[in-house]
Structures are given as C-alpha cells and as structure tokens.
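Most newcomers find our protein records easier to grasp once they have seen one. Each record describes a single protein and holds just a pair of labelled lines. A learned vocabulary of local backbone shapes supplies the integers on the structure line. Nothing more is needed to start thinking about how sequence determines fold. The record below serves as our worked example for the rest of this section.
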Amino acid sequence: SMLGTYTIQGYDGGQETVELRALESTRLENLGGSPESGTLYSCMFAFNDYDDNGVLDPRETLMYIPDSAKNAGEDGVPVVVVFPGNTQAAATFFDCSMWWAIANDEGCAVIIMGEYCASNAAGLTYGDEEDNANFSRAALAVMENAVAPEAGIAVDMTRVYGSGHSPGCRPIQTL
C-alpha cells in the first residue's frame, strides 16, 4: 500500500509521480559520543520503472533529522543530498561517512541516496542523468512532504546542497 503520492517536475519538464511505499524511523541517541541525537528515516519510494513491466520500482533513501534542526523555526533547515560511491549501500555510507555528525553540528537535514540493483544484489549503481535528476527530485519531495512534517520541522527548499563520493559526484552535478 502507498503512504502518499507526490508530483514532481521531471527531467523532461513534464510531471512525474512519486509513490511513497514505506517510511520507518528510529531514534539514534548520542552517536559517536556526540551530545546530540536525531531520528533516522528509511524511505522506500518509487518513481521509475526499471524493468519495463509497467510498475514503478522502489528505491531506498535514508533521511536524518537531528534534534538541532528543531531550533530552526518557520524558516526551515537546509537539506544536504549525498550520493555514496558506486556499490556503496546507503546504510553503510551513512554510518561510515558520519554525515549525521555534520547534521548534528549544523542543524541540517541529510538525505543519503540509495542506488539500485542493476543486475544483481551486489551490482548497486546509479541510473542515467534523467534517472538521477528524478531520483533527487523525488527524494526532496518525500523529505518536504512526508519526513519533515513527521519530524516536526520545516525544510528550506531554497537551501539544498549536495555532495557525492566517487561516481556519486555525477548525480550531484546533475542535481
């Protein structure tokens, strides 16, 4: 079942549909000895039909909202979109890259983008330019319309930043 459907402006200029399929959260208390805590959201949403069977296929992102983001008020917090390197799962990259520490210190929301399995479970990769653009826009729509309200914050969509590791730099340049 879908939790929500959102519309984004697609890469080609037309309107595209994003289906939010699952949204789970867990509290992360005092990561790495930091005095700060936050909430990690695992989001499954679909925006592209990778296997051409007429059904949108799910992709995962991880979204982290530090408690410090709740101090931003109505103006909202900036969002950092992060693309891991090729074959790096979002969960592993979230843990190893310590973006949660930056989010805690700066009071920003962080989205760690997930790759899709191109040929097998170990074949994580990114799509083409259109897919990367639509994936970024879909993730931002889910952040703004589902995760931020659930977390009790506002996001400032005029302050969206990006970072990419290794081949993850290409999708950020597209964004």
Notes: The two ends are 29 Å apart (CA to CA). The chain is about 25% helix and 40% strand.
